[in-house]
Amino acid sequence: MIISEYNSGKPSRHIAVTAILFELFKTVTEYSFKQVLKDSGISYAGLYYCEKAISLIKNNIEKKLNITEIAVALKISSGYLSRIFMKNTGKSIIEYINKIKVEHAQILLESKKMTFKEVASHIGISDIKYFYHLFKKYTGITAKEYQNLKHYEEKF
């Protein structure tokens, strides 16, 4: 029926059929999304708060954040945030924060204009030994090895 209406040759029918198809597509997409959430046990609220937490972390990379501060900013309990974050990302908030900090440190180290201590400070880590530990944990190499590797890659 939809195809015969579309093939009627009337422009108004084309618009009507297109609107019906868009509505059908929207309905199928929403149903599929809800089904995926239901099957995985994830809620809309969980996704919303995780997205907000991730945004807060990325926008405050220079600060020493913890789960309590993030939960307070989102007006939810730290226990709830911890559970939904782990469920939605597969990582604890601290793991995620550290991973993002190290990724940002890699970008800063590529510029070669900052010392390791400056990079650590820029990502909210005051203890240089802890910075070295995290960097190696998340990249598998030391910060100096990473910087040398990037310098070597630039030559070629």
Q: Biggest sheet: strands, sense, closure?
A: none
Assigned CATH architecture of the largest domain: Orthogonal Bundle
Q: Helix coverage percent of residues?
A: over 70%
Distance between the termini: 62 Å
Beta-strand content bin: under 5%
Named CATH topology of the largest domain:
Arc Repressor Mutant, subunit A
Structural class call reads mainly alpha
List the helices and strands and how they pair.
Blueprint: H1 2-6, H2 11-40, H3 44-59, H4 67-74, H5 78-89, H6 93-111, H7 116-122, H8 128-139, H9 143-155
Helix pairs in contact: 3-5, 6-8
Structure commentary:
With 156 residues, the chain is mainly alpha-helical. It folds into two domains: 2-40; 44-155, Homeodomain-like (Arc Repressor Mutant, subunit A, Orthogonal Bundle), CATH 1.10.10.60. It has nine helices and no strands. Helix 3 packs across helix 5 (78-89) and helix 6 (93-111) packs across helix 8. The longest helix has 30 residues, at 11-40. The relative contact order is 0.08.
